[in-house]
Amino acid sequence: MLAKSTHTSFKMVHVLSVMTLFFIVQIIASDLAYQFTLIPDKVVQGNEWWRVLTHVFAIDSPWLAFLGLPIYYWLGKETEHLTQDGVFPIGFLIGAIITGLVYAVMPVECPPLGAGLYGMLYSASLAMTMVRSPAITVPALAKLRISIISTLTIGFGFVFLGMSMFIGDMMYMYSYSLQSGSGIMIGLLTGLIWSHIRLAGKEAEVPKHDFPTYVPIATQPIRKDEKALINIMIEQREVIQESHLIDEDTDDESILNIILEKIHDQQYDSLTEGEKAFLERYSRSLK
């Protein structure tokens, strides 16, 4: 289990390492982002569809490098610790590619799209979904910690989106809206799908037993063989009761007292045939 956790964590760290390396090189070569970010005109008209993938790693702003990367790492690490698999990087990459394809064919002119709000809000949405998933057990302190940082991240995303709307730049508003909405929705869907698969896997691991189905006696008449079996069971029970009652070391008076107590508690009709026969023999012996 430990080896598996380390392996999946390496995949997440690998994605973040590429993003960090891209930002460092971007500082040296300022035009690097232009070569890898998603520019709709170049994707559709220039047939540069590889930008749909490379934009995921293209960090072109310091605020994202110093704020977004720590959030990616922290929430990604928490998520992988809970799930013990690569759901975080897989969902992150697939969702970013889908978002990039949608962005490339948008009917409005949009600015270049690089790594941005999508990743931050995806991480927060996925983490929030995980801590509420019935497929895993999350310690209360960890749940509180993840919920706080995820809520603050989502809140920051909406504040940033609101600022772009306030400024009135429609192109950036479209870009930020798409990144925010897709990040939250894809994180939520990734978490829900993972939870469903994990729960289904747990149900499959539980061994299924074929228990007989019992039909109430009142729903169908008792057959003759069943009546005979019941009578045999009653007779055997009476023999057992009588054998327990009439012991070799028990004298007649003790047996009589036991039978009289039974008559007092359960009436005469509750006596077995053996008990009735004993009373008859005892009464004859007194004459």
Structure description:
The protein is mostly helical. It has 2 domains: 2-205, Up-down Bundle (Rhomboid-like fold), CATH 1.20.1540; 220-286, no CATH class. It contains 12 helices and no strands. The chain has helices at 2-28, 32-36, 40-44, 51-54, 62-83, 87-104, 117-131, 140-167, 170-205, 224-245, 252-266, 273-286. Helix 1 packs antiparallel against helix 5 (62-83), helix 6 (87-104) runs antiparallel to helix 9 (170-205) and helix 8 packs antiparallel against helix 9 (170-205). The chain is rod-shaped and about 125 Å long. The termini are far apart. The model is unreliable at 1-10 and 211-220 (pLDDT under 50).
What CATH first level of the largest domain would be assigned? Mainly Alpha
Number of separate helices: 12
How much beta, percentage-wise? Answer: under 5%
Number of domains: 2
Mean pLDDT across all amino acids: 77
Straight-line distance between termini: 88 Å
Notable characteristics:
2 domains, disordered N terminus
Question: Would you kindly provide a brief summary of this structure?
Answer:
The protein has twelve helices and no strands. The chain is mainly alpha-helical.
List the topology elements.
Elements lengths: L1 H27 L3 H5 L3 H5 L6 H4 L7 H22 L3 H18 L12 H15 L8 H28 L2 H36 L18 H22 L6 H15 L6 H14 L1
